[in-house]
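Lab notebook, bench 4. The sequencing result for the construct came back, and we need a structural model before the next group meeting so we can plan mutations. Quick request posted to the team channel:

Model the 3D structure of this chain.
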Amino acid sequence: QFQNSTTTHGLSSREGLTIGNNGNDAYIMQREAAPLYLGTSGEARMTILGDSTTHSKVGIGTVSPASTAGSDSFLEIYGATDAGLVSSSNNGEWDLKNINPSANLNLYAAGSHRVTFAYAGNVGIGSQTPAEKLDISAGNIELDSAYAIQWGGSNNRIWGSNGNDYIKIETSGLERVRVINDGSVGIGTDAPYAYD
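Done. Here's the predicted structure in token form:
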């Protein structure tokens, strides 16, 4: 056990720093209600705050980790121009990366960009500069058969069925137009003929 410079003895359960082991377990314990810093080259690289007995606040690259969203327990990774969280295995690598604290949040997989959450609120799939709430680049949207896209509720929808080969449009909850597998179009009928 090591004496903390702010204590006179470092002997009680809430004083000093303990480095030890218990059986096969090893530990470093900051017993004061104060941060624990781990560092290299004379600089703190990782900080564990000690301001709460119920919350865990960890910072990498910062000595004062904070949560803008107000989370009780969190990990903050700070970089002056670039910060990210990397998960890797023998099968590949996955990155959660923020290239600038005031810019976009980008998700990477296998080393390539996949999704952007723009700071203005737009989301891009395959696009790093989404211009709309959802911006999909170089890809399609696929729904399960017999499901719909709807606007502001269930009254106005576009349906599609792969099994029954049709597309239909509804307004005010009623079917108005249907296109079936042979190209026939029905207005006001769900069983159109070639010129119905």
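Residues 186 and 196 are 6 Å apart (CA to CA).
Will bring this to the meeting.
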